[in-house]
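Format notes (please read before filing issues)

Several people have asked whether sequences and structure tokens are stored in separate files. They are not. Every record keeps both together, in the order shown below: the sequence lines, then the token lines. Line labels are part of the format and must not be stripped during preprocessing.
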Amino acid sequence: MFERFQEFFQNLTSDNTKKGFAPDDPRIAVAALCMQVMEADGQVTDSETKRLRKLLKDQYGLDRKQLDALMAAGQEAESDAVDYYRFTSDLKRHLNTEQRLELIGVLWDIVYADGERSEMEDDAIWRIAELLGVSARERIQKRQEAARRVTDTEVVQDDAD
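Then the structure lines:
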């Protein structure tokens, strides 16, 4: 699972060698969209926040200070945004079709981090997928893959107990 995310995030920033986060840095857009999806159901759980922090840290190779800066920049951008278009239009320019599909997969993994999926989270990802040009079939496929990963992880954890 993490290899897939690592490749996605590395491709996203392959041309970006800066350590700082410029306002148009696609990593901020990714973080902000993840935060918007996390907040869609009105509850941001520790497990969702931990999952997002781990994904961003591991995939972008950030130290704690850089991760905190990215999280703060993403939160600020998310707070200033009135809709998803601000982020999806930028990411659509930076990401190819496969990377956009992987982003939808990342969003589903964040949704399932707390073990639950809400109607509001479904709606948020549906809207984001539409703006990114990801079909309903592909979006549902990514949702099913994320749900299977959660189920597989639970089975492995149960076997370890």
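For reference, the curators noted about this record: Confidence is low (pLDDT under 50) at residues 15-19. Residues 2-12+24-160 form a domain with the TerB-like fold (CATH 1.10.3680.10).
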